[in-house]
Amino acid sequence: xxLIVQKYGGTxxxxxxxxxNVAQRVAKYYSQGHRVVVVVSAMSGETxxxxxxxxxxxxxxxxxxxxVMVSTGEQVTVxxxxxxxxxxxxxxxxxxxxxxxxxxDSAHTKARILRIDEEKIRADLHSxxxxxxxxxxxxxxxxxxxxLGRGGSDTTGVALAAALKADxxxxxxxxxxxxxxxxxxxxxxxxxxxxxxxEMLEMASLxxxxxxxxxxxxxxxxxxxxxxxxxxKEEGEGTLITFEEDNNMEQAxxxxxxxxxxxAKITVLGVPDHPGIAYQILGPIADVNIDVDIIIQNVxxxxxxxxxxxxxxxxxxxxxxxxxxxxxxxxxxxDVIGGDKIAKVSIVGVGMRSHAGIASKMFRVLAEEGINxxxxxxxxxxxxxxxxxxxxxxxxxxxxxxxDLDQVVQ
Amino acid sequence: xxLIVQKYGGTxxxxxxxxxNVAQRVAKYYSQGHRVVVVVSAMSGETxxxxxxxxxxxxxxxxxxxxVMVSTGEQVTVxxxxxxxxxxxxxxxxxxxxxxxxxxDSAHTKARILRIDEEKIRADLHSxxxxxxxxxxxxxxxxxxxxLGRGGSDTTGVALAAALKADxxxxxxxxxxxxxxxxxxxxxxxxxxxxxxxEMLEMASLxxxxxxxxxxxxxxxxxxxxxxxxxxKEEGEGTLITFEEDNNMEQAxxxxxxxxxxxAKITVLGVPDHPGIAYQILGPIADVNIDVDIIIQNVxxxxxxxxxxxxxxxxxxxxxxxxxxxxxxxxxxxDVIGGDKIAKVSIVGVGMRSHAGIASKMFRVLAEEGINxxxxxxxxxxxxxxxxxxxxxxxxxxxxxxxDLDQVVQ
Lengths: 410, 410
Hints:
homodimer; four-stranded antiparallel sheet; 20 strands; Carbamate kinase; 13 helices; globular; alpha/beta
């Protein structure tokens, strides 16, 4: 008899019928003798509805007040799910983040969890209750309502599992597990039975939007056994996210291929090649909270070099303006060019560490298809390339095949 | 410079535009140097929407969970109003009932306020904030969310005014004050500048739905100066609810005429006329939480009497069934008859105490119009009659004229 934390996202609780389905699934676990804590998101669309309402009052809504509003989304869902569980003759009780109490810092709309008081939940579980907790929210030290930012319900689930020392944290989503790549692009994409935390982190940050990255970090840090499952399929074991050392099976060299086309490329041409230039370029960009992903500076010649980096497409115009108006005149670079017709494709796998030649194989496969590589970035378990966005899908397909991801190896 | 508590109902905050209007009105008071606490209800329609959603899950929603859901309505409004105030460059801060903390008993969906911790609000006011508090809600001793029941936002306003020792509690509604009777029925109905608490209580309980009765009781108990105003008209002083001893003006004999057609009449015929019979009849009715209003038992003859009372129309079928199945067989009464084609019309006024002949004048006026009186009930400052519902409007009109309510006397 295990203690399980289950998390259901907005789509899974999108209407009363779906909430009843979730209750049925929880009831099944409960009737098997497990103790169950359920974390739920707002009904899909609700958070956006609330934000739109706030924007009718303030174009840039006050973060504290926005959190007060937005947190009502989950508050409604926890009550509905508790009611639905009662209809199965299960004792159930809802908690808001503040009631639990999930203590966070005061960074409204993107708060981080500091501590969870789990005693009340533990007592309720002991008394036979299924406990339903509002995801995505908490309170700060002054009892202000905070939210964890988009996808934060995953983090709530994992943090609760850690605090309760749960046997497993199950994340129910609209996909039934983690795939080698997006099946919409590669029909042969295969569901992985297991994936390591490190690979999952690389996959998540690279655009496989199954799990919120912070929740994966959290799970890794607190050694929470994490499983991704479908809330719409009755059967299936989903994908278990493991610690590398747990994994005794034959490991594939590459576990998956991630991609995204959310980025834009900026190149500063003719940059004087002296120490501190990277900071001079990226400091002002960071100051306005523009995230930079890939950064490339090559060896210079004649005292000059080119400096390239990628930002989110939405930030391209802003970053270009800052570079042209504030940075270029100071550093004496020749010009800056930007473009958003790019895509990033990455191969990810812990097996890469012990296998040489993965990068060269990747480059050869792309070259054989005539796909030009614009930028390259590598980490221990990942190789990313930036290509023309028109070639993204082709690149994913040929790499998927070349690395035998359509073959069952696990 | 005064400390004012303002309460705005659901219609006054029914959409973003109206919320902006409320902010403008609050800003006006604030700019005059007043300290302002605002209590708001949920946007009109929202509470019903949430209850309907709950009923899609549970036909009879669990009260604890229903309160968790329904309380989100005001939580959204307080945040929106705080944002709207910020747009006027006013420092504003929202509070849920739990954040304040408004401590209530644990009677979910109809909780009563036990205590208000007003220190945080006082500190915020001192720092120049306008404080926006969610009406209608609180928490019990175990931090469960509770609601005060329909109209409870008025009670929140009055209770806050009492706790903060505010100079005035202003209740903004969609009417601009208390009228001698409903202007839709009597176009000559006049707005009262003042009305006593006792009269207001009789008016409210008799169906003038401007203020929630519990809030008026509360205001009377804690000597809170209460004013009813329109949230849609810019000007006007509304109606001030006074304590009788404050009122030095020439007092009209009758202040107003209330009426409702929400009731139904039940008569138990041929009841053995012995002690305890009223309890035997009404006890089982009270046991199922059916409220009884007028109760009439006349002197019996031949050891038998008839016993009549009124209940809410919605409870008629239920009350009749209980009487027929459980009560009649035990008490040996002859029969029970019920009907809902009735209306209650009441004249209310503290002046009645010192003026004889008010009742006989009322009965004469109705007789002259051929209106048959089915039941009569009197209190110190009110006389109510039950008549055929077809004659209700006529009765109100002729009484309004007969008691000179269309003449300005204040």
